Amino acid sequence: MDESVCQAYEDEIQALEEEIELLTEKYEDLRQESMFFSDEEILKSIKLLERETQGQTKGQESPSDLKAQLESLEADLSFLTAFTGFQFTSHSKKTVERTKTRTVQKHRLSGKCHSLPFQLEFQLLEMQNDGEVSTVVSDLSIVMESREDPDLSKFVSSTEESGSLLIFFRSLSTYAEWYEHRRRTFLHFK
Fold first, then answer.
1. What pLDDT score was predicted for residue 148?
2. 169-172 contacts: CB < 8 A, separation 24 or more?
């Protein structure tokens, strides 16, 4: 066999092996994500998928049904945004390490709480022991415009040290809400 033909076959084999590895990683990511859903959520998703499949066999849903669903989802999103003050603009996730018992993922999240923009970057370590999954947040990095507020800078620093996302979101929500009240009050007197 000609050496150039052999090399072409080896290159093709290498490309296919890389593609298989990439698809295996994607499959494992999806499988890992599905472990965090409750049985009830999985059943709801299955029923929804069945309805969609039946809708495709009977014909597509009418545009008015789709429009009603879209309006309902937009209303839900609007309510959650108004209720919490959070509006997320982007999220990315990358798996850094994966073994049978542990997974390390790097997350990037950005958005606004009321009028205060923020960006988070953190690693999420998921460990499985005897069927139980535990998660740990590490390497938390928060980027916010402090707007010359030393208390906000201290809060960001202490939250990064503690690595508590719950404390960050709760405190930021309260701070941003009162920040908006103060801003409107000062605008009123200008």
1. 65
2. 169/86, 172/113, 172/116, 172/118
DSSP output for 57-113:
HH-PPPHHHHHHHHHHHHHHHHHHHHHH-EEEEEEEEEEEEE-SSEEEEEEEEEEEE
Looking at the structure, do residues 19 and 103 belong to the same domain, yes or no? no
Do residues 45 and 98 share a domain? no
Establish if 39 belongs to a structural domain. yes
> Which tokens go with 8?
């072409």
Spans in the chain with pLDDT lower than 50: 57
Residue 134's domain comprises 85-189
DSSP helix/strand/coil, 172: helix
User: What is the token pair recorded at 120?
Assistant: 């988070």
- Confirm if 94 and 106 have CB atoms less than 8 A apart: yes
Q: Rounded to two decimals, what is the model's pTM?
A: 0.57
Residue 7 covered by a domain:
yes
